């Protein structure tokens, strides 16, 4: 006999699976929409050539992804904050996971977002509103998990160039379509791009499919945050919420 709590979690799981699975068919079969200047979108920053259809789908994805499925404090601790502050260096790639939000179900894995640490307790990342900066405090108030990786063969010139390129992308929109190009970026694409431009080896999307459930449903090749672990990057920090789970 299932308890009320177990039944609640069961129905919630079915609901999440249904909503997330419905997004790709919605995108593929939704007819073209006429431009309507009166429409208001949940996302304000789009590529110049974005269609009304693209804007509507992006807004739906944003609203669904931002749904909080767990009402609890985040898992990153004060001890994690102190340890990360001692370890972080400019140019580190910071991988985080927010498992209170529905978006974590679609992305999957122990980390769901990628950022670049630029020094002075500040990161540059691409999220729904585009490429922006975010503070150390906000990161540790929002996310549950963290992995910090550092370029193995990096030198100060490459790192400085990567950070400079990241700053030059501020204000660009989020790439909801996971397309190649530099007009818009999703999170891992941004970090990979700036390091590639700085002269480091680029990470190629997995030809057999992304670790991201959503990217696979959309039938696109995308770089998942976990793809930065290993290869040309070495892990220098793992949050206590992930210790023993990687």
Question: Which helices and strands, and how do they pair?
Answer:
Layout: H1 4-29, H2 52-65, H3 78-87, E1 93-97, H4 103-107, E2 113-119, E3 122-127, E4 130-135, H5 136-142, E5 145-151, H6 156-168, H7 187-198, H8 213-217, E6 233-238
Antiparallel strand pairs: 1-2, 1-5, 2-3, 3-4, 5-6
Quick tags:
single chain, alpha+beta, 6 strands, endopeptidase fold (from Nostoc punctiforme), 246 residues, 8 helices
Description of the structure:
There is one protein chain. By secondary structure, the chain is an alpha+beta fold. It has two domains: 4-65, no CATH class; 78-238, endopeptidase domain like (from Nostoc punctiforme) (endopeptidase fold (from Nostoc punctiforme), Alpha-Beta Complex), CATH 3.90.1720. Helices cover 37% and strands 15% of the residues. It is built from eight helices and six strands; from the N terminus they run αααβαβββαβαααβ. Strands 4-3-2-1-5-6 form a six-stranded antiparallel sheet, with helices on both faces. α1 (4-29) packs antiparallel against α2 (52-65). The longest helix is centred in the N-terminal third of the chain and has 26 residues, at 4-29. The radius of gyration is 18 Å and the shape is globular. The two termini are 34 Å apart. Residues 4-23, 26-31, 33-38 and 209-218 have low confidence and may be disordered.
